[in-house]
Design brief:
Layout: H1 14-25, H2 39-49, H3 53-63, H4 72-81, H5 93-109, H6 115-127, E1 132-133, H7 134-141, H8 145-154, E2 168-169, H9 172-175, H10 178-185, H11 198-217, H12 235-249, H13 269-288, H14 302-315
Antiparallel strand pairs: 1-2
């Protein structure tokens, strides 16, 4: 296995960040209502970025956020006056600077009544293995469709990759900057925000995938005879990825959700065999098509390994 190393990018200069803001704030896409920021305000904003281009990009997205009822110049003033600029130091002060920006963005973008669903939404995307249409993602995550769509649209203000207008929900690392993914999965001193556990997120999706496959699909008349190509909605995802979510979501190789409706000890040998007939043609087709066919699937190299061990273990029950 090749060794990898992370190298910190050098900070952008004050001049570069000022040019960045001038270019985007003069594009004509923002209605400043006669309050377009002058050179002094641009200079102060660039200084606030402190060399972090991702901070500058996020601030620009927040200014253009359609869900914020304030005028653009009011959003900009709030960013500038939020707190005194933290100078980069060896103790990682720049990380704290991004954390404050992200925390403020979430409190502004999402009303309190929706933040619980926001956390579930983000948890699901952190471990999601491939992009799904909003409706299928809502079914998988257990979030009501309208709420999932609203959260998806509001998160566009923090999106740095991909098309913000798409109706597909992508894995978090394919949509957001790595610093934001780190922010939502790392414990902090702020008691109001609880970090997302990837193990718990896998556990959540594993529960739902097991229910989709072994309760809703395989106990139906259609599920007893259909082929993989005839699966509907989120069923293909659940068939493909429940072993991965299962193995990543529990250290004890046992999954028994609170409802008690699905658990490994409740799945019959017949149902497991039926699932295998759906799963193996799917994964075989992907590998026959070549490595590139797995683009967009996180941890793809683990899937056959985890699944083969899981199938073998279940066969030994």
């Amino acid at each position: 296995m090749l060794a990898t190393h992370k190298y910190a990018l050098p900070p952008a200069s004050q001049t570069v960040i000022e040019r960045y803001f001038h270019q985007h704030f003069s594009s004509g896409d923002i209605n400043w209502r006669g309050r377009k920021p002058d050179d002094d305000k641009i200079h102060r904003l660039a200084a606030r970025a402190d060399g972090l281009l991702i901070w500058a990009a996020t601030a620009r997205l927040l200014v253009t956020n359609k869900f914020d009822t304030r005028y653009p110049h009011e959003i900009l003033d709030q960013i500038l006056s939020s707190e005194e600029k933290v100078v980069n130091q060896k103790d990682g002060a720049e990380d704290g600077q991004l954390e404050r920006l992200y925390r403020g963005a979430i409190s502004t973008l999402f009303p309190p009544h929706i933040r619980g669903m926001l956390r579930n939404f983000l948890a699901a995307t952190v471990v999601l293995q491939e992009a799904l249409p909003i409706g299928e993602f809502a079914d998988l995550s257990g979030i009501p469709g309208p709420a999932a769509e609203e959260i998806h649209q509001r998160l566009a203000a923090l999106q740095t990759q991909g098309d913000p207008k798409t109706n597909l929900i992508s894995p978090a690392i394919q949509r957001f900057h790595a610093s934001f993914v780190e922010f939502i999965t790392t414990e902090s001193d702020d008691q109001a925000s609880q970090a997302i556990s990837t193990t718990e997120a896998h556990y959540m999706l594993a529960n739902r995938c097991l229910e989709i496959v072994f309760v809703e699909l395989l106990q139906s008349f259609r599920g007893k005879t259909c082929t993989y190509r005839e699966l509907r909605g989120v069923e293909p995802y659940a068939v493909k990825f429940w072993p991965l979510h299962f193995s990543s979501g529990t250290p004890r190789q046992r999954l028994a959700p609170p409802s008690g409706t699905v658990g490994m000890d409740l799945i019959s040998d017949e149902a497991m065999h039926r699932w295998t007939t759906l799963f193996l043609p799917c994964i075989a087709a992907r590998f026959q098509a070549g490595h590139n066919s797995l683009d967009g699937i996180q941890n793809a190299s683990r899937l056959p390994h985890d699944s083969s061990h899981l199938i073998w273990g279940l066969g030994m029950r």
